[in-house]
Predict the 3D structure of the following.
Amino acid sequence: MPAPEIERLVGLFARLPTLGPRSARRAVLSLLADPKAHIQPMIDAMQAVVDHVQVCPICGNFDTQVPCSVCADSKRDKKQICLVRDIADLWALERGNIFHGVYHVLGGVLSAIDGVGPDDLNLDALVGRIQKGDVEEVILALPATVDGQTTAHYVADRLSKYPVQITTLARGVPVGGELDYLDDGTLQMALKSRRNL
């Protein structure tokens, strides 16, 4: 049996998305093969994240500055807000350098099965941004899943009383597709072909 410290580390790794117990055990064994080369740099990087990374109070992005570098960028079109489910989706759009507005991280999608309701989402902050009157368009870049589309309709209904155009990504995004797994070309076409909801 491995030492309790190793088992604890395997258990922590197994909590990460896409890592089960076997994958976690392989990852830990790989790290232990050369601890000074692998583990200490990882500890240093994790400590730097804990010490310096914050959540942007405007959009919900992770960054080392407040507001985040996207919100602080004067070249960004602040009249366009792209609403995304999570930070991975924001990073997917940024990776392709195809959107030049700003973002808002919703923090999930509505899901009765998972117990996620409207109060669990970062929607009030979005409404607050729109109430200031500078926003002209909200692009709903939510997953093309049942929960994603339910959320899109809920958000559109919630924002319908404000003078803002609500658009959604074109259906170039496959049903059931996750933004983080799509190539840059597909994301670019989906963003360019957005339509009113």
